[in-house]
């Protein structure tokens, strides 16, 4: 088997099968992504997208109500002290048990959520010539559109296309964003920052800390937004929309449409996170698990491919990756004791992000690399 050495922006120097490299480059060079394959009318998905059978075994709670991710009403936070404490208690339980919960009455109008989903759809469904010039693997551009950020190092590709932009601390210039979704992305970024600060306050109190503790650590300083487009897949049983992974962030907020497909791994079973009208999915990221010394869980999750599509989702990751500082993050001292010593070494956001990207979405946790 002939092997070629390539230089990948994410992983550095990697070795890859020559035939596979040719297929990857052919796909990448179309600049049309997975949607381009669907537009061609394919009925069989390319082998690049085939995942091993054990990666997508059919074990989930579909149709069952035995295990349901909590839906928390944030309107109760401002009612009275007892209601606030009850919400904090539910957030604490969800963060320790599931690593996931959904929030409703979060302060973002439903019209904004719908317009955002429409904006993402408009971007992907415009003529290919209008978006092809934005297709790039240069991660530091104001707006990055491509398919599979880890294309050249991933064991199997995911059935989705993605665009990425940094919404905070320095929002992009309007002219750097596509016209079809420019205004709504900037508006959504402002809403996200406000909601993120509220959630970090509640999470701080859930840990028994001052409400500003996580915010003062810098957990809410940066937001990276990813707009995902999961086209209908002719052979969903052979692939995945997103491989099993945990998030490289302090906190992630996800807007998903009505189609569903997001699943969280709980006690070796895949639990569906059913779409809830007007809700946002909240999940703990690796960095928050690290600084809470495993108190809050960054849980592995995935997105299954679907026959109906396209599925639209927007994920906002709270982590200062664009302008990382030398600030070290380790287990919060106030949470440690003789019986609960630190489980992780200190690291910077930049070091963690670099390791996470070089590793790719290979189904393993980057946290293991930082354990003491």
From TrEMBL:
<keyword id="KW-0560">Oxidoreductase</keyword>
<dbReference type="GO" id="GO:0051213">
    <property type="term" value="F:dioxygenase activity"/>
</dbReference>
<dbReference type="Pfam" id="PF14226">
    <property type="entry name" value="DIOX_N"/>
</dbReference>
<dbReference type="InterPro" id="IPR044861">
    <property type="entry name" value="IPNS-like_FE2OG_OXY"/>
</dbReference>
<comment type="similarity">
    <text>Belongs to the iron/ascorbate-dependent oxidoreductase family.</text>
</comment>
<dbReference type="GO" id="GO:0046872">
    <property type="term" value="F:metal ion binding"/>
</dbReference>
<keyword id="KW-0408">Iron</keyword>
<feature type="domain" description="Fe2OG dioxygenase">
    <location>
        <begin position="219"/>
        <end position="321"/>
    </location>
</feature>
<dbReference type="InterPro" id="IPR026992">
    <property type="entry name" value="DIOX_N"/>
</dbReference>
<dbReference type="InterPro" id="IPR027443">
    <property type="entry name" value="IPNS-like_sf"/>
</dbReference>
<protein>
    <recommendedName>
        <fullName>Fe2OG dioxygenase domain-containing protein</fullName>
    </recommendedName>
</protein>
<keyword id="KW-0479">Metal-binding</keyword>
<dbReference type="Pfam" id="PF03171">
    <property type="entry name" value="2OG-FeII_Oxy"/>
</dbReference>
<dbReference type="InterPro" id="IPR005123">
    <property type="entry name" value="Oxoglu/Fe-dep_dioxygenase_dom"/>
</dbReference>
